[in-house]
């Protein structure tokens, strides 16, 4: 409807015009995009070498200090989040979520300048996007099938294979040589349709959304003024966004369809609908504008909409410029969770050994511990003896399922996770969390080039300390 209203005046002109005149008419109704390049600083050159050195250093810390603890205590089976090299070196990911036909694909077309090209994302008034579309940088324009993306270990999408072939058929990548895509990756998602059950999609839609949510640096949740109803699928989506409020931005799109008074009512109705779903003191930032390539409708708040658009672009640019800092912070947060998991498993193992006697039934003893960990002070002892926040502790019930498939006898205590050459796993992960990752972050902020030391780069060697020899 919006397209028809905006273009109806120009239809007779376009019918009678020559090709050159038609192009001039289209240009006259297209919005100026110069502020996009200025705000996102697309003309600026990056110091790619510095970023590569920092990422190499980050990858080294992860593989040497965090991953061994992950593997020893099977952290991936608790969180279902395994970090690959592709994820460490990947560009920031911007995820577009929301109901169908709210303008997610049109917004991506607008930001990348794809309108009226053969490669623009298809848009329309009906539900049009049925795939998860990943728009990324490439040397030439081409489409990449989902099965190819999942099979390529150099990308960060190989873990998506676990969602099955039905999903991979609904995953598509688009590569193109674009300055913005050198710095960020966009992910367009199928619109939420409240009357459709997840089973009808043929793959676990919510689980796939969670995978992308866990890895997104910025999440745009887009709404249309005429589609503010919150149903079960949208409610489930906001449950999955819990804990990611700092990455969420709400976009009230197609705002120039309304007069100012109606827009104020819709803005209030949007907050009223979302308030029960976003239970935080400071709600996410809301941007009100019309994100598509054509000019704003007449007699609307043009200046307000443009200021809102520039503000959103500045927000996006901030995420792009802070991508190294965000990546280091993400790996450090992951390391903290792995450490807490290892401490808890170690406490379960120690408690099991203390309660076992010659005549005890191992299964009954451990079942009692897992069913009521508070009785044995499993979690309280971690809080008392370590600098762990109670807000970082995982759900107790998760360990009932975890030990259901991983017998306690398959784990060693932390004190036994030491070797003459490699050192102790706990000491290495604590050093990474408290010294190495903060040091890498400070070197980036101070403008120093965080290159690997000679021994880190070559594996040369100073004689390892004998941790079992008395001084």
Can you give a write-up of this model?
It is a single chain. With 471 residues, the protein is an alpha/beta fold. It is built from 21 helices and ten strands. The chain has helices at 2-7, 11-16, 19-29, 34-40, 48-72, 76-79, 85-89, 104-112, 146-151, 165-168, 198-201, 205-215, 232-240, 260-274, 302-321, 323-355, 362-371, 378-385, 396-405, 425-445, 454-458, and strands at 93-97, 132-137, 142-145, 171-176, 185-188, 218-223, 248-252, 285-288, 418-419, 423-424. The strands form two sheets. Strands 3-4-2-5-1-6-7-8 form an eight-stranded mixed β-sheet, with helices on both faces. A two-stranded antiparallel ribbon has the order 9-10. Strand 9 and strand 10 form a beta hairpin. Helix 4 (34-40) runs parallel beside helix 15 (302-321), helix 5 (48-72) runs parallel beside helix 16 and helix 5 (48-72) runs antiparallel to helix 20 (425-445). The chain is globular. Residues 1-17 and 452-471 have low confidence and may be disordered.
Radius of gyration: 26 Å
General form? globular
Number of strand segments: 10
Helix percent band: 40-55%
Query: Would you tell me the structural class of the helices and strands?
Result: alpha/beta
Tell me, rounded to a whole number, the average pLDDT: 82
Number of helices: 21
Mind describing the biggest β-sheet? 8 strands, mixed
- Percentage of β-strand residues: 5-15%
Cα distance spanning the termini:
81 Å
Low-confidence stretches: 1-17, 452-471
Give the spatial strand order of the biggest sheet: 3-4-2-5-1-6-7-8
